[in-house]
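Changelog-adjacent note: as of this version, every example in the card shows the full chain rather than a window. The one below runs 349 residues end to end.
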Amino acid sequence: MSQRRTGAIEGFFIESADNLIFDVKGHVHPPDRIIAYVRYVPDENGTRVKCGVKYRKIYSLWERSCFLKSRYPHYIYYDPNFNTSLQAVPRRLIRVIYDPTERLAQMSNARESLDGIELAALDFVETLSGFSDVPLSSFGVTGSILVGLHKDSSDIDVVVYGAKNCISMYNSMEYAFTGSSKIERYNLDKLIRLYKFRSRDTYIPLKMFLKIEARKLLQGLFGGRDFYIRLVKKPGEVDWSYGNLMCMSIGRARIKARIVDASESIFTPCKYLIEDVHFLKGKECPNLTEIFSFRGRFCECAFDGEEVVAEGKAEKVILSDGSTYSRLILGESTKDFIVPKILSKFYTT
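Full-length structure tokens:
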């Protein structure tokens, strides 16, 4: 972990002065706070323990927001650039910043003291590095292992930093699934279990979910444990900074469009460039050119050339030079989705 007060990006976690633990969202943050969503909270009935304090994990975005509004409203603020209310940790209230790469380095240097899931995570990262030729220094461990709140049943959450490293990692996953006896794709039973978990926060019909998730390469099983790999650009590789654009909500919209560039869909945050946009429901807006999300579950949902149906919040983006475009934001509502049109009869009739 790190005592730094700056530099937290996607994959990092923050512990606040109120003993709340947040996961950081994206790369771009206002000067006085870091945008992050509460994940673990002290609870005498919690099943996770750290330094003698019991914690519980909060899953849905709705529950996270309700918890802060009712008990810690100072972690919710209205952002004038994003033009919406966000969860964020004021920098003056940051106690610890947890760095995934530092945690992995510590684990690698203290292998003899690791527990079973920590050893599995280290083994997984070393296996991935071997298949991808991405250096171990560009990997990190995130999630519950990062903050020391994991259980025997916890997932292995891995992050890779740097666009070139991320692409190498992604391109190697097919080989990893076939070349390692420990790395497996989800079978039908596991996908149904995943659906029961995900559908509490993002609903789509089961058959559609199974077809979409079965194509994904960044999730699966390692030695029988669930894993998820988050691919994250370095800060210098992100093409915008706080204050150089402003977002204005237009309203909810459902669209049909064709994917012209899905190369950014493997990253978190992810985006899809689109053309041939048709509005099926809700607010219409001009020059809608992309679908964007901060949430990993919307990665890898569609590929170049596919027609998709998607629903989310339409917003107008105003750049510092005065130019504008519109985009569809996914992940702020349980009703948000993106599905290939061939699977989308449920949403188009």
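Structural remarks: The chain has a mean pLDDT of 94.
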